[in-house]
Amino acid sequence: MPMYLLRHALLGAASLCALAFSWAADAQSLDVQKSFHIVSQPLVEALIVFSQASDIQVISAGEALKSTRVQAVEGVMAPRQALDKMLAGTGLRWRELGDGSVVVEIRLR
């Protein structure tokens, strides 16, 4: 096998491994302890602060939830715990999308 083909094959395999490790890290990011300093504020602003602190992408229907205020979250905890605390009593829930991101939506009874 020519050397340039071998080099391309090895680079391709290394790229696939890096992508797999990156995906696994994203999937576990909801359980990794992070430091949160989120004051009680409108949901839209709180989700931005949460996303910056946790490195987790958050999706929500911002306009529909614009008037919702969330609870303050302070301390070191897993992002899933921070989301639970922040959304407590709002009638909202969050769910994991499986790609390292979460969606915040209205809790259906």
What does this structure look like?
The N and C termini lie far apart (62 Å). Strand 6 and strand 7 form a beta hairpin. This protein is α+β, with helices and mostly antiparallel strands. The chain has a 3-stranded mixed β-sheet with strand order 3-7-6, covered by helices on one side. It has a two-stranded antiparallel ribbon with strand order 1-5. It has a two-stranded antiparallel sheet with strand order 2-4. Helix content is 43%, strand content 27%. It has helices at 3-28, 43-54, 79-87, and strands at residues 34-38, 41-42, 57-60, 69-70, 73-77, 92-96, 101-106. It has a single domain, classed as Phage tail protein beta-alpha-beta fold, CATH 3.55.50.30.
Name a few traits of the molecule:
Phage tail protein beta-alpha-beta fold, three-stranded mixed sheet, 109 residues, 43% helix, 27% strand, 3 helices, 7 strands, globular, alpha+beta, single chain
- Major sheet, described briefly? 3 strands, mixed
- Provide mean pLDDT, rounded: 78
The structural class is alpha+beta
How many strands in all? 7
Low-confidence segments, ≥5 residues, pLDDT <50? 4-27
User: Strand content of the residues, in percent?
Assistant: 25-35%
Inertia-based shape: globular
Widest sheet: strand ordering: 3-7-6
Order of helices and strands: HEEHEEEHEE
Radius of gyration: 19 Å
- The helix count comes to 3
CATH class equals Alpha Beta
- Percentage of residues in helical conformation: 40-55%
State the distance separating the first and last CA atoms: 62 Å
Which quaternary structure do these chains form?
single chain
Q: Would you tell me which CATH topology applies?
A: Phage tail protein beta-alpha-beta fold
Domains, number: 1
**Would you identify the CATH architecture?**
3-Layer(bab) Sandwich
